[in-house]
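FAQ: What does the model actually see?

It sees only this:
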Amino acid sequence: MIGVLSLVDMLGMFNNRKDTDIDPATPVDEVPCVVLDTELTGLELKKNSIVSIGAIAMTGTRIDFASTLYMLVKPETALTSKSVVVHGIMPSDLLEVPDIATALQKLSAFVGNRVIVGHFISLDMGFINKYLKLFQNRVLRNPVLDTCRLHDWLRSEEKGFGRHFDNDLPNKDLFTLARRYGIEVSGAHNALSDAFITAQVYQRLVRYLQRHGVQTLRDLLSIGKS
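And it is asked to produce this:
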């Protein structure tokens, strides 16, 4: 006879479940992705918070311009002068925007079971999962790919790949890589436009990666998992 699960057991099952069931053998060109970026009040996980979220869907290297998400978010901590310079979001812009709990519900629905892609994405995921844990007692367990890790792997594998960049690349920030790929960037950061720039960088990286035998989601995760 099957016993009744306790509330603790059910919560454990929920929190430990995987948020994606994508077959690791899925070809690179068919992998469903969400390219994600956040703007923050600062970079310290314990002291700062999310002020905007941008995301755009992809399948393989195809960007779905009809499937995007952009939200200003009421931050849990005060804006700083440094952060305002970076993202240009003023306190007056945040008077009638959703709180982080509401924003993360929308983000979770948008992400679904897709692979998450981002540049230095561990920073974004740290903040997202911090608040998901606080408000929903869970975290996103989707596979996560870092475009910086993919770039580093390519540079180590392909001697000719370095010709696309300076011999000494001191910075690997998103705008630096984008410019070296001929991708247009603006001066200020915006979560959705940065997600779009990241999507274009990911497009170019995947085309090079396929030349080096990276053919499946499993292959991508083996070199770019964050």
